[in-house]
Q: What sequence folds into this?
C-alpha cells in the first residue's frame, strides 16, 4: 500500500518537474509553498515524514509563518548540495545579521531559529545560533537580560557576591 | 515600529547559542539568571564550549620561573596570545607564599596544570580565565625500590575525595618526554627514548580517561623510512591531534592531522615550504623566540614571536595551544561529599538532576559522590531512555533547581589569592 503511494507520487512528479517530486508545505498563516523534495529533506523533520510516507498530502508547518518559511526555503535553495560554495554563502548570509540590534532583524533571526529548531535543519540552526552568539558576545549582563527578556532571579546579595567573585569580568 | 514581544526561546536553543559565545563573555553571562548560571557551570556546557572554541585556539605563554634561591614566593603569570593583538595579555598572576618553583605540567580544556619542581607530588590546577586555582592532593611518593624498572601511573578523580589511585599497564614503559597534549578526550605524550630512534619504538603514548587505559597510537605513514635522528612535534590543530614533521635536508615541513581518531587515520593536511621565511637569522636567541604557524581556512601565516621584545624578561616560556574555557574548578570541590556525609543513617537523599545539561551523572556513569544509596543508584542508572527524555521535557521547570542543593553549600572557595591586590596587576581590559 505505502509503496504504491510513493510510486504514484513520484510518477506524478515526473510530469511536473523532471523526476523530482514536489512537496506542498503550508505555513501557520495558510500560505502554501511547493518545494522540491530533495531540497526540503534538508529538514530532518520533513525527511522523517517522507521516509514514513506521510508527505503525500499538504504538510502543515505549524508555528512557522509564511514569511519565515519563504526565508527557510531560500536557505534550502542556497544550500542544495552543489549549489554554491558553502563558505562564501555563509559569509553572505551572516552579513545579514550584522545589524542584529535592529528590532526587525532580531525578530527575523528569532523566527528563523524557531523554524530551524522545529523543522530540525542542522545547518540553519548552526548558522543562526552562531549569528546570535556573534551578536551578543561582549555584551553586559544587563544588556543580555534585555536582549532575551530575562528577569534576574538572583537576590541582591547573591548577585553582589557573584559579581565580587569575578569582578574583573565586569570592567571594561 | 510596533513592538512585538520578544518570543519565548526554548532553553535548548539558548544553550546552543551560549555554547558558541567566547568564554570571556560567558563569565559575565553567568549572572544573567540562575538557569544560565547552572547551564554555564555544567560540565556538558564546558565540554561543548571547548570543542567549538578549539577551532580558533589561542596560545598560552607561561614564564617558567627559575629555581629560586632567594625567592620567598612565586608568581605565575599566564599570558594568552590573542589573534587580534598578537601580543600576550597578562591574564593573572598567582602569588603563593611558600618557597618553591613550579613548571607547567600540562594544558588542556582551558586549564593549566602546574607541578612543583622540587617538591615531588605537589600540583596546582588553574583556570586562567576564571582565575580559580585548585590545590591538588599530593601524590603519594612511590617506594622506588619496590618498583624498580616498572612504571606506574596514578589517577585522581575529582570530587571523590579519594587519594590518587595507582594504575599499572604493561605498555607503560617509557618516560614521557613532553607535556601532555589533550585531544579527542585523551591525553597524549611523546615518549622519551634516549638511545633509540623515535621511529623504531612506539613514539606516542595515549591515555583514555574514561577507560583509564594507556595505548600506543601509531605515527603517520610518512611514505618512507625515517632516519634515526628525525624528530617530530606532537601538538593539536583545530581540536585534532597533530604531528609536525620536519623532513631533514628537505625544504618543507608537513602537518598531519588525526582525522579519524577511532580508527587512527592520519591525513597530511599541510605541506609548508620553508623558503617563505628564514628563521635562522631571527632565531639567534634560541629559547626566546618561537615560530608559530597559523593555519586556518587552508591558508597559513608564519608568525615569529620574539619573547624578549614582548615580555621584556629573559625567561623561558612554556608555550601551548590553549582554548579558554569556563569550566569551574568549584565542580571539584569536595563540599558535596561533606553534605552527603552529614545525612544521618537511614535517610535518603533524592537528587533531582538535570541530566540533560549536567551530563556528568549520566554520560560518565562513574560514581560521582562515592558510595550511594539505593535510591541514588536508581536515579542515575535509569537515566537513559525514556526517563531521561521526560527529564528533558520538564527541564525548564527543574533547570534552576536541579543542582541547587549542593551549590548552596559551596562556600569554601579554592582561590587563595587576594582579589583586591590582584586586580591592580592586571593591566589589560578584558572586554571584547
A:
Amino acid at each position: 500500500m505505502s509503496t504504491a503511494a510513493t510510486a504514484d507520487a513520484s510518477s506524478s512528479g515526473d510530469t511536473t518537474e523532471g523526476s523530482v517530486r514536489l512537496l506542498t508545505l503550508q505555513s501557520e498563516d495558510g500560505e502554501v509553498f511547493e518545494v522540491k523534495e530533495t531540497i526540503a529533506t534538508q529538514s530532518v523533520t520533513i525527511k522523517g515524514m517522507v521516509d514514513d510516507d506521510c508527505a503525500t498530502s499538504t504538510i502543515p508547518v505549524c508555528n512557522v509563518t509564511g514569511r519565515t518559511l519563504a526565508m527557510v526555503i531560500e536557505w534550502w535553495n542556497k544550500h542544495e548540495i552543489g549549489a554554491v560554495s558553502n563558505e562564501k554563502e555563509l559569509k553572505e548570509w551572516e552579513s545579514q545579521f550584522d545589524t542584529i540590534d535592529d528590532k526587525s532583524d532580531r525578530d527575523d533571526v528569532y523566527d528563523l531559529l524557531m523554524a530551524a529548531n522545529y523543522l530540525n535543519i542542522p545547518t540553519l540552526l548552526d548558522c543562526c545560533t552562531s549569528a546570535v552568539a556573534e551578536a551578543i558576545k561582549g555584551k553586559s549582563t544587563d544588556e543580555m537580560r534585555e536582549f532575551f527578556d530575562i528577569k534576574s532571579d538572583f537576590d541582591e546579595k547573591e548577585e553582589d557576591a557573584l559579581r565580587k567573585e569575578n569582578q574583573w569580568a565586569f570592567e571594561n | 515600529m510596533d513592538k512585538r514581544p520578544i518570543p519565548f526561546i526554548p532553553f535548548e536553543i539558548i544553550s546552543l547559542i551560549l555554547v558558541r559565545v567566547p568564554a570571556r563573555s560567558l563569565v559575565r553571562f553567568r549572572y544573567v539568571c540562575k538557569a544560565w548560571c547552572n547551564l554555564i557551570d555544567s560540565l556538558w556546557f564546558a565540554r561543548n564550549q571547548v570543542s567549538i572554541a578549539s577551532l580558533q585556539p589561542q596560545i598560552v605563554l607561561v614564564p617558567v620561573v627559575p629555581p629560586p634561591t632567594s625567592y620567598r614566593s612565586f608568581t605565575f603569570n599566564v599570558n594568552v596570545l590573542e589573534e587580534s593583538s598578537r601580543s600576550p595579555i597578562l591574564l593573572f598572576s598567582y602569588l603563593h607564599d611558600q618557597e618553591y618553583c613550579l613548571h607547567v605540567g600540562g594544558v588542556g580544556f582551558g586549564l593549566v596544570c602546574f607541578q612543583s619542581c622540587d617538591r615531588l607530588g605537589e600540583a596546582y590546577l588553574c583556570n586562567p580565565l576564571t582565575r580559580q586555582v585548585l590545590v591538588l592532593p599530593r601524590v603519594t611518593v612511590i617506594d622506588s625500590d619496590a618498583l624498580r624498572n616498572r612504571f606506574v601511573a596514578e589517577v585522581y578523580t575529582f570530587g571523590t575525595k579519594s587519594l590518587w589511585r595507582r594504575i599499572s599497564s604493561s605498555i607503560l614503559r617509557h618516560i614521557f618526554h613532553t607535556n601532555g597534549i589533550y585531544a579527542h578526550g585523551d591525553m597524549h605524550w611523546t615518549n622519551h627514548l634516549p638511545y633509540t630512534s623515535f621511529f623504531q619504538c612506539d613514539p606516542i603514548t595515549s591515555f583514555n580517561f574514561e577507560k583509564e587505559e594507556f595505548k600506543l597510537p601509531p605515527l603517520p605513514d610518512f611514505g618512507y623510512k625515517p632516519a634515526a635522528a628525525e624528530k617530530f612535534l606532537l601538538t593539536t590543530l583545530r581540536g585534532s591531534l597533530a604531528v609536525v614533521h620536519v623532513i631533514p635536508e628537505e625544504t618543507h615541513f608537513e602537518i598531519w592531522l588525526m582525522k579519524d581518531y577511532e580508527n587512527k587515520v592520519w591525513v597530511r593536511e599541510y605541506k609548508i615550504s620553508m623558503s617563505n621565511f628564514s628563521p635562522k637569522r631571527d632565531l639567534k636567541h634560541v629559547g626566546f623566540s618561537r615560530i608559530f604557524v597559523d593555519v586556518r581556512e587552508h591558508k597559513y601565516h608564519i608568525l615569529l614571536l620574539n619573547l624578549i621584545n614582548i615580555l621584556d624578561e629573559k625567561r623561558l616560556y612554556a608555550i601551548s595551544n590553549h582554548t579558554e574555557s569556563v569550566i569551574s574548578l568549584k565542580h571539584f570541590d569536595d563540599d558535596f561529599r561533606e553534605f552527603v556525609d552529614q545525612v544521618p543513617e537511614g535517610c535518603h537523599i533524592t537528587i533531582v538532576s538535570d541530566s540533560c545539561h549536567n551530563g556528568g551523572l549520566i554520560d560518565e556513569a562513574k560514581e560521582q559522590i562515592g558510595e550511594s544509596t539505593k535510591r541514588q543508584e536508581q536515579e542515575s542508572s535509569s537515566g537513559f531512555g525514556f526517563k531521561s527524555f521526560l527529564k528533558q521535557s520538564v527541564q525548564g521547570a527543574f533547570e534552576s533547581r536541579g543542582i541547587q542543593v549542593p551549590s548552596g553549600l559551596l562556600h569554601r572557595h579554592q582561590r587563595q589569592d587576594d582579589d583586591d591586590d590582584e586586580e591592580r596587576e592586571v593591566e589589560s581590559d578584558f572586554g571584547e
